Amino acid sequence: xTGIRKVAVVEGDGIGKEVVPVAKAALGIxxxxxxxxxxxxxxxxxxxTGEAVSDDGLAMLRESDxxxxxxxxxxxxxxxxxxxxxxxxxxxLFANIRPVWGEGFRITVVRENLEGLYSGIEEIGKDRATTLxxxxxxxCTRIAACACRLAMGKTLTIGHKANVLKSDTLxxxxxxxxxxxxxxxxxxxYIDALCLDVLQHPGSYDVIxxxxxxxxxxxxxxxxxxxxxxxxxxANLGDRHSLFEPVHGSAPDIAGNDVAxxxxxxxxxxxxxxxxxxxxxxxxxxRAIQAVILRGVRTRDLGGTAGTRQFGDAVxxxxxxxxxxx
Length: 326
Fold this sequence. Notes:
With 326 residues, the chain is of the alpha/beta class. It is built from eleven helices and twelve strands. The chain is globular.
C-alpha cells in the first residue's frame, strides 16, 4: 500500500454531513493508523465567511495524502463560484473516474475534469451570457492516456459530438491516437446516442472516455442501471493529489432527516483504498455493503425502511466482524 497517512475529511453541505462520517469510520476500522483531519468547505462556510474554501483550507488539502469528500451546495448566485470546480483546478485533479457495475456489466466512465464547458471562462451580461468550451492538447492527451491505462485488455469507447462541435474533433483524434499507440481496442460514439445505448446494452461497454460536461451527464445516466446516484462513487485524480466523493449532490431536501443512502460514500472510501494499493480493504467494504443489503437492511431508495444511521451502523458492524450485534 502506498504511503497514505493523512486523510483530509470534507463533509461539506447537506447529506454530506451524514454519509461522510460513515465512510470515515469504515476507513478507521480498516486503517486505524490513518490521521484524519477535518477541512470545512462549501456553501455553509461561504454563507458565514464569504469564502467557500479558505487559503488555509486549500493548504490543508494540499498537505493531505488523500481527500474524502462529501457534497457541497452551489446556489444560483453570481457571487458564488463552484467550490468543486475550484478544488479540481487548485489540486490539478484532471481525471474523474466513475465506475458503475451490476449483473453482466462493469463500466468505467473516465471524464476529463478541468476543461470543456466547466473551464470557468464565462461572461455574464445584461442581454448575453457566454461560457467558453476550452479543450487543449495537453488536457486531451492526459485524459486519453489515463483512459487507455484503464482500458488495457478491454475496449475503449470514445464519446464525443465531433459532428457538431469542432473542439470535439481534437478530443476524438487525440483519444484515437493514444489508443492506437498503446494498442488499446477502441470505438467511437456520438454522446447522445451513447447515453441511450449504454442503458439498452450496458454489457457492451467497458471504459468510456469523454469530455467534462458530457462525462458529468453520462455518469449520471448510468446511475439508472444500479438504482440511482446514492449507489455510485467517484475518484478525482491528478499526478500529486486525489479526492474521492460520492456522485450524488448535497440533497438539501432530505438533509438532516436520516434517510440518505451512505453506500456511495462508503464506495468512495473503498476507491480511496484501492487507489492506495489496498485492494483487499476496498473489497472488504464492498462485501460488508452487500451482506447488509442481502440481510434486508436497506435505505428507502433501495425499497427498505432503514435510516442512514441504522444502515451505516450495520455496515460498520459487518466490517468489524460484529454483525451479530446488530
